[in-house]
Amino acid sequence: MPEKQLMKGNEALAEAAIRAGLKGYFGYPITPQSELLEYLSRHLIDRGGEFIQAESEVAAINMVYGAAGCGKRVMTSTSSPGYSLMQEAISYIACGELPCLLVNVVRGGPGLGTIQPSQGDYFQAVKGGGHGDYRLIVLAPNSVQEMADFVFKGFDLADQYRNPVLILADGALGQMMEPVTFPDYNPEDNLVDHSDWATQGKPASRGPNVITTLHLEADKMEAVNLKLQEKYRTIMANEVMIESIQTEDADLVLVAYGLTSRIAHKAVELARNDGLKVGLLRPKTLFPFPSQHLAVLADQVTSMMVVEMSAGQMVEDVRLAVNGKVPVYFQGRMGGVIPQPDELLKRIHQVYSSSSTQVNS
Amino acid sequence: MKHEIVIAGFGGQGVLSMGMTLAYAGMLENKEVSWMPSYGPEMRGGTANCTVIISDQPVSSPILNSFDIAVVLNQPSFDKFQPMVKPHGYLLYEQDQIFNADCRQDIHAIGISATKEAHALNNKRAMNMIMLGALLGTNAIVDIPSVINALKKVLPERHHHLLPLNKQALKKGQGIIHQVAEV
Q1: Which CATH number fits domain A5-238: 1.10.10.1100, 3.40.50.1820, 3.40.50.970, 3.40.50.10330?
Q2: ipTM metric
Q3: Span A102-128, average pLDDT
Protein backbone atom coordinates (compact mmCIF):
# COMPACT_ATOMS: atom_id res chain seq x y z
CA MET A 1 0.00 0.00 0.00
CA PRO A 2 1.36 3.45 -0.87
CA GLU A 3 2.62 5.54 2.01
CA LYS A 4 0.31 8.03 3.68
CA GLN A 5 1.62 11.57 3.96
CA LEU A 6 0.28 14.48 5.96
CA MET A 7 0.07 17.37 3.51
CA LYS A 8 -1.64 20.68 2.93
CA GLY A 9 -4.23 20.63 0.18
CA ASN A 10 -2.18 23.03 -1.94
CA GLU A 11 0.92 20.84 -1.62
CA ALA A 12 -0.97 17.61 -2.32
CA LEU A 13 -2.42 19.15 -5.48
CA ALA A 14 1.03 20.25 -6.62
CA GLU A 15 2.60 16.84 -5.94
CA ALA A 16 -0.24 15.14 -7.79
CA ALA A 17 0.30 17.42 -10.78
CA ILE A 18 3.97 16.38 -11.02
CA ARG A 19 2.97 12.72 -10.76
CA ALA A 20 0.36 13.26 -13.48
CA GLY A 21 3.12 14.25 -15.90
CA LEU A 22 2.95 18.04 -15.65
CA LYS A 23 5.23 19.54 -18.30
CA GLY A 24 4.62 23.23 -17.71
CA TYR A 25 3.40 25.38 -14.84
CA PHE A 26 2.79 29.11 -15.25
CA GLY A 27 1.56 31.13 -12.31
CA TYR A 28 1.70 34.17 -10.13
CA PRO A 29 1.62 33.99 -6.31
CA ILE A 30 -1.52 34.85 -4.37
CA THR A 31 -2.78 33.80 -0.94
CA PRO A 32 -4.28 31.30 -0.09
CA GLN A 33 -2.88 29.38 -3.05
CA SER A 34 0.82 30.24 -2.87
CA GLU A 35 2.05 26.92 -1.40
CA LEU A 36 1.01 25.29 -4.66
CA LEU A 37 3.26 27.55 -6.71
CA GLU A 38 6.03 27.34 -4.11
CA TYR A 39 5.95 23.54 -4.12
CA LEU A 40 6.19 23.42 -7.90
CA SER A 41 8.97 26.01 -7.94
CA ARG A 42 10.99 23.71 -5.67
CA HIS A 43 10.26 20.39 -7.36
CA LEU A 44 8.90 20.62 -10.91
CA ILE A 45 12.08 21.40 -12.84
CA ASP A 46 13.98 18.51 -11.19
CA ARG A 47 11.15 16.17 -12.09
CA GLY A 48 10.75 16.81 -15.76
CA GLY A 49 8.69 19.99 -16.16
CA GLU A 50 9.14 23.70 -16.71
CA PHE A 51 8.20 26.24 -14.05
CA ILE A 52 7.70 29.90 -14.86
CA GLN A 53 6.59 32.57 -12.44
CA ALA A 54 4.94 35.01 -14.81
CA GLU A 55 4.76 38.78 -14.35
CA SER A 56 1.00 38.64 -13.85
CA GLU A 57 -1.98 36.31 -13.99
CA VAL A 58 -2.76 37.63 -17.47
CA ALA A 59 0.68 36.58 -18.65
CA ALA A 60 0.47 33.22 -16.86
CA ILE A 61 -2.80 32.16 -18.47
CA ASN A 62 -1.60 33.25 -21.92
CA MET A 63 1.49 31.08 -21.39
CA VAL A 64 -0.88 28.22 -20.57
CA TYR A 65 -2.78 29.00 -23.78
CA GLY A 66 0.40 28.73 -25.83
CA ALA A 67 1.80 25.68 -24.08
CA ALA A 68 -1.53 23.84 -24.14
CA GLY A 69 -1.51 24.39 -27.89
CA CYS A 70 1.52 22.09 -27.97
CA GLY A 71 -0.63 19.29 -26.54
CA LYS A 72 1.42 18.93 -23.38
CA ARG A 73 0.07 18.68 -19.82
CA VAL A 74 0.15 22.23 -18.50
CA MET A 75 -1.55 24.16 -15.75
CA THR A 76 -1.90 27.33 -13.75
CA SER A 77 -3.24 28.05 -10.29
CA THR A 78 -4.45 31.19 -8.60
CA SER A 79 -7.05 32.61 -6.25
CA SER A 80 -10.15 34.65 -6.95
CA PRO A 81 -8.86 38.09 -8.00
CA GLY A 82 -6.17 36.40 -10.06
CA TYR A 83 -8.73 34.10 -11.64
CA SER A 84 -10.79 37.09 -12.71
CA LEU A 85 -7.77 38.44 -14.55
CA MET A 86 -7.48 35.18 -16.52
CA GLN A 87 -10.99 35.14 -17.98
CA GLU A 88 -10.25 36.47 -21.47
CA ALA A 89 -7.65 33.81 -22.20
CA ILE A 90 -9.77 31.05 -20.66
CA SER A 91 -12.48 31.87 -23.19
CA TYR A 92 -9.87 31.56 -25.96
CA ILE A 93 -8.58 28.26 -24.54
CA ALA A 94 -12.14 26.89 -24.40
CA CYS A 95 -12.80 27.97 -27.99
CA GLY A 96 -9.49 26.54 -29.16
CA GLU A 97 -10.41 23.28 -27.34
CA LEU A 98 -7.07 23.11 -25.60
CA PRO A 99 -6.67 20.63 -22.75
CA CYS A 100 -5.21 22.15 -19.57
CA LEU A 101 -5.77 22.28 -15.83
CA LEU A 102 -6.81 25.46 -14.02
CA VAL A 103 -6.98 25.76 -10.24
CA ASN A 104 -8.87 28.44 -8.32
CA VAL A 105 -8.31 28.29 -4.55
CA VAL A 106 -11.18 30.64 -3.83
CA ARG A 107 -11.03 33.48 -1.29
CA GLY A 108 -13.69 35.89 -0.12
CA GLY A 109 -14.74 38.69 -2.46
CA PRO A 110 -15.86 40.74 -4.25
CA GLY A 111 -12.92 43.00 -4.95
CA LEU A 112 -9.54 42.31 -3.42
CA GLY A 113 -11.60 40.87 -0.57
CA THR A 114 -10.07 38.65 2.09
CA ILE A 115 -7.73 35.68 2.12
CA GLN A 116 -10.32 33.58 4.00
CA PRO A 117 -12.15 30.77 2.18
CA SER A 118 -15.25 31.37 0.07
CA GLN A 119 -17.42 29.79 -2.61
CA GLY A 120 -18.40 33.10 -4.16
CA ASP A 121 -16.81 32.21 -7.51
CA TYR A 122 -19.33 29.46 -8.38
CA PHE A 123 -21.12 31.47 -11.07
CA GLN A 124 -17.82 32.47 -12.63
CA ALA A 125 -16.64 28.85 -12.59
CA VAL A 126 -19.68 27.09 -14.02
CA LYS A 127 -21.51 29.74 -16.09
CA GLY A 128 -18.59 31.05 -18.10
CA GLY A 129 -16.67 33.90 -16.51
CA GLY A 130 -15.22 34.94 -19.81
CA HIS A 131 -17.18 35.86 -22.92
CA GLY A 132 -19.08 33.52 -25.19
CA ASP A 133 -20.90 30.21 -24.85
CA TYR A 134 -18.32 27.95 -23.32
CA ARG A 135 -18.05 25.58 -20.39
CA LEU A 136 -15.22 24.30 -18.28
CA ILE A 137 -15.34 20.90 -16.63
CA VAL A 138 -15.44 21.95 -12.97
CA LEU A 139 -14.30 19.56 -10.24
CA ALA A 140 -14.97 20.36 -6.56
CA PRO A 141 -12.76 18.47 -4.09
CA ASN A 142 -13.72 18.39 -0.41
CA SER A 143 -10.61 16.82 1.13
CA VAL A 144 -6.86 16.88 0.77
CA GLN A 145 -7.09 13.41 -0.80
CA GLU A 146 -9.44 14.74 -3.48
CA MET A 147 -7.21 17.79 -4.02
CA ALA A 148 -4.74 15.16 -5.27
CA ASP A 149 -7.14 12.69 -6.93
CA PHE A 150 -8.93 15.33 -9.00
CA VAL A 151 -5.65 16.41 -10.59
CA PHE A 152 -5.24 13.00 -12.26
CA LYS A 153 -8.93 12.94 -13.12
CA GLY A 154 -8.75 16.51 -14.36
CA PHE A 155 -5.83 15.98 -16.72
CA ASP A 156 -7.44 12.81 -18.09
CA LEU A 157 -10.77 14.58 -18.72
CA ALA A 158 -8.99 17.56 -20.28
CA ASP A 159 -7.19 15.26 -22.70
CA GLN A 160 -10.24 13.14 -23.43
CA TYR A 161 -12.52 16.06 -24.27
CA ARG A 162 -9.94 18.63 -25.35
CA ASN A 163 -11.44 20.96 -22.79
CA PRO A 164 -9.99 23.07 -19.98
CA VAL A 165 -10.71 21.59 -16.54
CA LEU A 166 -11.04 23.76 -13.45
CA ILE A 167 -10.46 22.53 -9.92
CA LEU A 168 -12.58 24.81 -7.75
CA ALA A 169 -11.23 24.63 -4.19
CA ASP A 170 -11.19 27.19 -1.40
CA GLY A 171 -8.67 28.66 0.99
CA ALA A 172 -9.40 26.21 3.79
CA LEU A 173 -8.95 23.15 1.56
CA GLY A 174 -5.69 24.65 0.37
CA GLN A 175 -4.37 25.31 3.88
CA MET A 176 -5.60 22.31 5.87
CA MET A 177 -3.59 19.13 6.33
CA GLU A 178 -4.93 15.60 6.04
CA PRO A 179 -3.38 12.26 5.16
CA VAL A 180 -3.05 11.67 1.46
CA THR A 181 -1.90 8.72 -0.62
CA PHE A 182 -0.98 9.09 -4.24
CA PRO A 183 -2.33 6.53 -6.66
CA ASP A 184 -0.13 4.38 -8.81
CA TYR A 185 -0.36 6.50 -11.96
CA ASN A 186 1.95 6.36 -14.91
CA PRO A 187 1.38 9.39 -17.16
CA GLU A 188 2.78 7.51 -20.13
CA ASP A 189 -0.13 5.06 -19.90
CA ASN A 190 -2.69 7.88 -19.86
CA LEU A 191 -1.40 10.42 -22.37
CA VAL A 192 -3.53 11.00 -25.44
CA ASP A 193 -1.98 11.47 -28.85
CA HIS A 194 -2.69 15.09 -29.80
CA SER A 195 -0.52 15.16 -32.92
CA ASP A 196 -3.55 15.56 -35.21
CA TRP A 197 -4.26 19.07 -33.92
CA ALA A 198 -1.42 20.24 -31.64
CA THR A 199 1.25 22.61 -32.88
CA GLN A 200 4.23 20.35 -32.27
CA GLY A 201 6.17 20.93 -35.51
CA LYS A 202 4.93 20.11 -39.00
CA PRO A 203 6.16 16.91 -40.63
CA ALA A 204 6.27 16.80 -44.43
CA SER A 205 3.49 14.21 -44.42
CA ARG A 206 0.67 16.61 -43.56
CA GLY A 207 -0.43 20.22 -43.75
CA PRO A 208 0.00 22.64 -40.83
CA ASN A 209 -2.06 22.34 -37.65
CA VAL A 210 -3.67 25.70 -36.92
CA ILE A 211 -5.15 26.82 -33.61
CA THR A 212 -7.34 29.87 -33.95
CA THR A 213 -10.36 31.31 -32.18
CA LEU A 214 -11.13 33.88 -34.87
CA HIS A 215 -13.94 32.85 -37.22
CA LEU A 216 -15.30 36.02 -38.79
CA GLU A 217 -18.03 34.39 -40.85
CA ALA A 218 -21.07 33.84 -38.68
CA ASP A 219 -21.94 30.41 -40.07
CA LYS A 220 -18.43 29.16 -39.38
CA MET A 221 -18.54 30.58 -35.85
CA GLU A 222 -21.91 28.93 -35.33
CA ALA A 223 -20.45 25.62 -36.50
CA VAL A 224 -17.70 25.99 -33.87
CA ASN A 225 -20.38 26.67 -31.25
CA LEU A 226 -22.50 23.69 -32.32
CA LYS A 227 -19.47 21.42 -32.01
CA LEU A 228 -18.71 22.80 -28.55
CA GLN A 229 -22.31 22.36 -27.40
CA GLU A 230 -22.33 18.79 -28.68
CA LYS A 231 -19.20 18.12 -26.64
CA TYR A 232 -20.74 19.69 -23.52
CA ARG A 233 -23.81 17.48 -23.92
CA THR A 234 -21.58 14.40 -24.04
CA ILE A 235 -19.79 15.59 -20.91
CA MET A 236 -23.14 16.17 -19.16
CA ALA A 237 -24.27 12.67 -20.09
CA ASN A 238 -21.11 10.89 -18.99
CA GLU A 239 -19.10 12.73 -16.38
CA VAL A 240 -21.38 13.69 -13.47
CA MET A 241 -19.88 12.67 -10.12
CA ILE A 242 -21.66 12.85 -6.77
CA GLU A 243 -21.43 11.55 -3.24
CA SER A 244 -24.62 10.60 -1.38
CA ILE A 245 -24.64 10.41 2.40
CA GLN A 246 -27.69 8.95 4.12
CA THR A 247 -30.09 10.17 1.44
CA GLU A 248 -31.93 6.82 1.19
CA ASP A 249 -34.46 7.51 3.95
CA ALA A 250 -34.01 11.28 4.21
CA ASP A 251 -36.86 13.77 4.51
CA LEU A 252 -34.50 16.71 4.24
CA VAL A 253 -31.46 16.60 1.99
CA LEU A 254 -28.66 19.13 2.26
CA VAL A 255 -26.80 19.99 -0.93
CA ALA A 256 -23.26 21.29 -0.59
CA TYR A 257 -19.90 21.03 -2.34
CA GLY A 258 -16.29 21.50 -1.28
CA LEU A 259 -15.52 22.53 2.28
CA THR A 260 -19.15 23.26 3.15
CA SER A 261 -20.05 19.66 2.29
CA ARG A 262 -17.75 18.57 5.12
CA ILE A 263 -19.48 20.90 7.57
CA ALA A 264 -22.87 19.87 6.23
CA HIS A 265 -21.86 16.24 6.76
CA LYS A 266 -21.13 17.02 10.41
CA ALA A 267 -24.52 18.75 10.68
CA VAL A 268 -26.14 15.62 9.22
CA GLU A 269 -24.44 13.52 11.92
CA LEU A 270 -25.67 15.90 14.63
CA ALA A 271 -29.21 15.99 13.19
CA ARG A 272 -29.31 12.19 12.99
CA ASN A 273 -28.33 12.11 16.68
CA ASP A 274 -31.41 14.28 17.27
CA GLY A 275 -33.54 11.75 15.40
CA LEU A 276 -34.03 13.80 12.22
CA LYS A 277 -33.90 12.05 8.87
CA VAL A 278 -31.38 14.26 7.12
CA GLY A 279 -28.99 13.39 4.30
CA LEU A 280 -26.43 15.07 2.11
CA LEU A 281 -25.92 15.16 -1.63
CA ARG A 282 -22.52 16.43 -2.67
CA PRO A 283 -21.79 17.35 -6.28
CA LYS A 284 -18.18 16.43 -7.02
CA THR A 285 -18.60 17.91 -10.50
CA LEU A 286 -20.19 21.36 -10.69
CA PHE A 287 -20.17 21.22 -14.47
CA PRO A 288 -21.58 18.81 -15.40
CA PHE A 289 -24.11 19.44 -12.62
CA PRO A 290 -26.03 16.49 -11.08
CA SER A 291 -29.43 17.86 -12.13
CA GLN A 292 -30.84 14.40 -12.80
CA HIS A 293 -29.84 13.10 -9.37
CA LEU A 294 -31.51 16.09 -7.74
CA ALA A 295 -34.67 15.72 -9.83
CA VAL A 296 -34.98 12.09 -8.74
CA LEU A 297 -34.30 12.98 -5.13
CA ALA A 298 -36.96 15.70 -5.27
CA ASP A 299 -39.62 12.97 -5.71
CA GLN A 300 -38.51 11.35 -2.46
CA VAL A 301 -37.79 14.14 0.02
CA THR A 302 -39.90 16.84 1.69
CA SER A 303 -37.39 19.63 1.26
CA MET A 304 -33.81 20.47 0.42
CA MET A 305 -31.37 22.96 1.86
CA VAL A 306 -28.34 24.28 0.02
CA VAL A 307 -25.34 25.35 2.06
CA GLU A 308 -22.71 27.58 0.50
CA MET A 309 -20.06 30.10 1.45
CA SER A 310 -21.77 32.59 -0.84
CA ALA A 311 -24.92 34.69 -1.13
CA GLY A 312 -26.58 31.77 -2.91
CA GLN A 313 -25.17 30.69 -6.25
CA MET A 314 -25.36 26.89 -6.61
CA VAL A 315 -28.82 27.11 -5.06
CA GLU A 316 -30.04 28.48 -8.41
CA ASP A 317 -28.96 25.30 -10.19
CA VAL A 318 -30.52 23.15 -7.48
CA ARG A 319 -33.83 25.02 -7.85
CA LEU A 320 -33.69 24.58 -11.64
CA ALA A 321 -33.12 20.86 -11.19
CA VAL A 322 -35.83 20.44 -8.55
CA ASN A 323 -38.20 22.54 -10.67
CA GLY A 324 -40.53 23.50 -7.85
CA LYS A 325 -41.27 19.96 -6.66
CA VAL A 326 -40.11 20.70 -3.10
CA PRO A 327 -38.99 23.84 -1.30
CA VAL A 328 -35.27 24.53 -1.58
CA TYR A 329 -33.94 26.50 1.39
CA PHE A 330 -30.63 28.26 1.53
CA GLN A 331 -28.10 28.81 4.28
CA GLY A 332 -24.99 30.77 3.44
CA ARG A 333 -22.17 32.85 4.85
CA MET A 334 -20.13 35.32 2.86
CA GLY A 335 -16.88 37.20 2.76
CA GLY A 336 -14.66 34.47 4.17
CA VAL A 337 -16.86 33.42 7.09
CA ILE A 338 -17.18 29.64 7.39
CA PRO A 339 -20.58 28.33 8.50
CA GLN A 340 -20.34 26.39 11.75
CA PRO A 341 -21.88 22.95 12.34
CA ASP A 342 -24.18 24.25 15.10
CA GLU A 343 -25.61 27.06 12.98
CA LEU A 344 -26.44 24.53 10.28
CA LEU A 345 -28.00 22.24 12.88
CA LYS A 346 -30.18 25.09 14.16
CA ARG A 347 -31.36 25.85 10.63
CA ILE A 348 -31.97 22.14 9.97
CA HIS A 349 -34.28 22.02 13.00
CA GLN A 350 -36.17 25.11 11.76
CA VAL A 351 -36.52 23.81 8.22
CA TYR A 352 -37.41 20.32 9.37
CA SER A 353 -40.24 21.51 11.58
CA SER A 354 -41.58 24.00 9.03
CA SER A 355 -41.01 22.07 5.83
CA SER A 356 -44.71 21.34 5.56
CA THR A 357 -45.48 25.08 5.52
CA GLN A 358 -43.67 25.51 2.16
CA VAL A 359 -41.78 28.61 3.24
CA ASN A 360 -39.11 29.36 0.69
CA SER A 361 -36.36 31.65 1.86
CA MET B 1 -13.19 7.09 19.57
CA LYS B 2 -12.91 10.67 18.40
CA HIS B 3 -10.96 13.59 19.87
CA GLU B 4 -11.79 17.12 18.80
CA ILE B 5 -9.05 19.49 19.89
CA VAL B 6 -8.22 23.17 19.53
CA ILE B 7 -4.78 24.61 20.26
CA ALA B 8 -4.49 28.38 20.48
CA GLY B 9 -2.04 31.08 21.46
CA PHE B 10 0.23 33.81 20.08
CA GLY B 11 2.08 33.29 16.82
CA GLY B 12 5.54 31.96 17.66
CA GLN B 13 4.51 29.85 20.65
CA GLY B 14 4.51 26.71 18.54
CA VAL B 15 0.74 26.38 18.36
CA LEU B 16 0.54 25.23 14.75
CA SER B 17 3.50 22.86 15.02
CA MET B 18 2.09 21.31 18.21
CA GLY B 19 -1.12 20.54 16.35
CA MET B 20 0.72 19.27 13.30
CA THR B 21 2.86 16.94 15.43
CA LEU B 22 -0.24 15.57 17.14
CA ALA B 23 -2.03 15.03 13.81
CA TYR B 24 1.04 13.35 12.34
CA ALA B 25 1.32 11.03 15.36
CA GLY B 26 -2.35 10.12 14.93
CA MET B 27 -1.77 9.29 11.28
CA LEU B 28 1.21 7.11 12.21
CA GLU B 29 -1.16 5.16 14.47
CA ASN B 30 -3.43 4.66 11.45
CA LYS B 31 -6.11 6.99 12.72
CA GLU B 32 -8.12 9.43 10.66
CA VAL B 33 -6.82 12.95 11.23
CA SER B 34 -7.28 16.53 10.12
CA TRP B 35 -5.37 19.73 10.92
CA MET B 36 -7.00 23.04 10.14
CA PRO B 37 -4.94 26.16 10.85
CA SER B 38 -5.98 29.75 11.17
CA TYR B 39 -4.11 31.37 8.31
CA GLY B 40 -5.55 34.85 8.29
CA PRO B 41 -4.44 38.19 9.67
CA GLU B 42 -4.63 36.63 13.15
CA MET B 43 -1.50 34.56 12.55
CA ARG B 44 0.36 37.62 11.27
CA GLY B 45 1.10 39.06 14.66
CA GLY B 46 -1.98 38.12 16.63
CA THR B 47 -3.40 34.88 17.93
CA ALA B 48 -3.01 31.66 16.00
CA ASN B 49 -4.97 28.49 16.41
CA CYS B 50 -5.47 25.10 14.85
CA THR B 51 -8.17 22.49 15.07
CA VAL B 52 -6.96 18.89 15.24
CA ILE B 53 -9.28 15.92 14.95
CA ILE B 54 -8.10 12.38 15.61
CA SER B 55 -10.65 9.66 15.11
CA ASP B 56 -11.23 5.99 14.38
CA GLN B 57 -13.86 7.05 11.82
CA PRO B 58 -13.46 9.32 8.77
CA VAL B 59 -13.53 12.96 9.82
CA SER B 60 -16.56 14.88 8.59
CA SER B 61 -16.04 18.56 9.31
CA PRO B 62 -12.48 19.79 9.89
CA ILE B 63 -14.10 22.97 11.24
CA LEU B 64 -15.72 22.80 14.67
CA ASN B 65 -17.27 25.04 17.27
CA SER B 66 -17.11 22.70 20.25
CA PHE B 67 -14.12 20.77 21.49
CA ASP B 68 -13.24 17.90 23.82
CA ILE B 69 -9.94 19.56 24.67
CA ALA B 70 -8.74 23.15 24.35
CA VAL B 71 -5.07 23.97 24.88
CA VAL B 72 -4.72 27.73 25.31
CA LEU B 73 -1.47 29.64 25.67
CA ASN B 74 -2.66 33.22 26.12
CA GLN B 75 -5.52 35.17 27.65
CA PRO B 76 -7.41 35.99 24.42
CA SER B 77 -7.42 32.29 23.53
CA PHE B 78 -8.52 31.35 27.04
CA ASP B 79 -11.44 33.77 26.77
CA LYS B 80 -12.35 32.74 23.24
CA PHE B 81 -12.24 28.97 23.60
CA GLN B 82 -13.37 28.40 27.19
CA PRO B 83 -17.06 28.62 26.17
CA MET B 84 -16.48 26.14 23.33
CA VAL B 85 -15.24 23.26 25.51
CA LYS B 86 -17.84 20.49 25.76
CA PRO B 87 -19.20 19.78 29.27
CA HIS B 88 -16.73 17.48 31.13
CA GLY B 89 -14.09 18.41 28.56
CA TYR B 90 -10.61 19.72 29.28
CA LEU B 91 -9.23 23.24 29.20
CA LEU B 92 -5.44 23.15 29.57
CA TYR B 93 -3.86 26.57 29.98
CA GLU B 94 -0.35 27.91 30.32
CA GLN B 95 -0.82 29.46 33.73
CA ASP B 96 1.95 32.07 33.56
CA GLN B 97 0.27 33.60 30.49
CA ILE B 98 -3.25 33.65 31.91
CA PHE B 99 -3.96 36.38 34.47
CA ASN B 100 -7.66 35.73 34.71
CA ALA B 101 -8.41 32.01 34.90
CA ASP B 102 -12.02 32.34 36.05
CA CYS B 103 -13.65 29.34 34.55
CA ARG B 104 -16.81 27.34 34.07
CA GLN B 105 -17.39 24.64 36.67
CA ASP B 106 -18.55 21.93 34.27
CA ILE B 107 -15.17 21.43 32.62
CA HIS B 108 -11.75 20.30 33.84
CA ALA B 109 -9.58 23.42 33.78
CA ILE B 110 -5.92 22.69 34.51
CA GLY B 111 -3.19 25.32 34.66
CA ILE B 112 0.31 24.20 33.73
CA SER B 113 3.54 26.12 34.31
CA ALA B 114 4.89 25.04 30.97
CA THR B 115 7.06 28.11 30.42
CA LYS B 116 8.82 27.67 33.80
CA GLU B 117 9.25 23.96 33.17
CA ALA B 118 10.70 24.71 29.75
CA HIS B 119 13.22 27.09 31.34
CA ALA B 120 14.13 24.28 33.74
CA LEU B 121 14.91 22.18 30.67
CA ASN B 122 17.07 25.07 29.39
CA ASN B 123 14.99 25.54 26.26
CA LYS B 124 11.99 27.84 26.39
CA ARG B 125 10.83 26.55 23.01
CA ALA B 126 10.08 23.19 24.64
CA MET B 127 6.98 24.85 26.13
CA ASN B 128 4.67 23.56 23.44
CA MET B 129 5.87 19.98 23.88
CA ILE B 130 5.24 20.23 27.63
CA MET B 131 1.69 21.33 26.86
CA LEU B 132 1.34 18.50 24.33
CA GLY B 133 2.58 16.07 26.99
CA ALA B 134 -0.03 17.45 29.37
CA LEU B 135 -2.70 17.01 26.72
CA LEU B 136 -1.66 13.38 26.32
CA GLY B 137 -1.70 13.08 30.12
CA THR B 138 -5.41 13.90 30.18
CA ASN B 139 -6.22 11.67 27.20
CA ALA B 140 -3.97 8.98 25.80
CA ILE B 141 -4.91 10.02 22.26
CA VAL B 142 -1.61 8.81 20.86
CA ASP B 143 1.48 7.22 22.41
CA ILE B 144 4.58 9.27 23.16
CA PRO B 145 6.75 7.08 20.85
CA SER B 146 4.36 7.98 17.99
CA VAL B 147 4.84 11.66 18.81
CA ILE B 148 8.61 11.21 18.67
CA ASN B 149 8.28 9.45 15.31
CA ALA B 150 6.04 12.29 14.16
CA LEU B 151 8.64 14.85 15.24
CA LYS B 152 11.22 13.00 13.12
CA LYS B 153 8.96 13.72 10.13
CA VAL B 154 7.89 17.24 11.10
CA LEU B 155 11.28 18.58 12.21
CA PRO B 156 13.98 19.25 9.63
CA GLU B 157 16.94 16.88 10.04
CA ARG B 158 19.17 19.64 11.41
CA HIS B 159 16.90 19.81 14.49
CA HIS B 160 16.89 16.06 15.16
CA HIS B 161 19.42 16.49 17.96
CA LEU B 162 16.54 18.11 19.87
CA LEU B 163 14.47 14.91 19.85
CA PRO B 164 15.68 13.74 23.32
CA LEU B 165 14.79 17.18 24.75
CA ASN B 166 11.35 17.02 23.18
CA LYS B 167 10.83 13.56 24.64
CA GLN B 168 11.80 14.88 28.07
CA ALA B 169 9.36 17.77 27.65
CA LEU B 170 6.51 15.47 26.62
CA LYS B 171 7.15 13.21 29.65
CA LYS B 172 7.34 16.27 31.89
CA GLY B 173 3.94 17.54 30.74
CA GLN B 174 2.40 14.11 31.04
CA GLY B 175 3.85 13.76 34.54
CA ILE B 176 2.35 17.08 35.68
CA ILE B 177 -1.13 15.86 34.80
CA HIS B 178 -0.59 12.51 36.48
CA GLN B 179 0.49 14.34 39.67
CA VAL B 180 -2.63 16.52 39.51
CA ALA B 181 -4.73 13.39 39.14
CA GLU B 182 -3.17 11.84 42.23
CA VAL B 183 -3.76 14.90 44.45
Answers
A1: 3.40.50.970
A2: 0.93
A3: 96
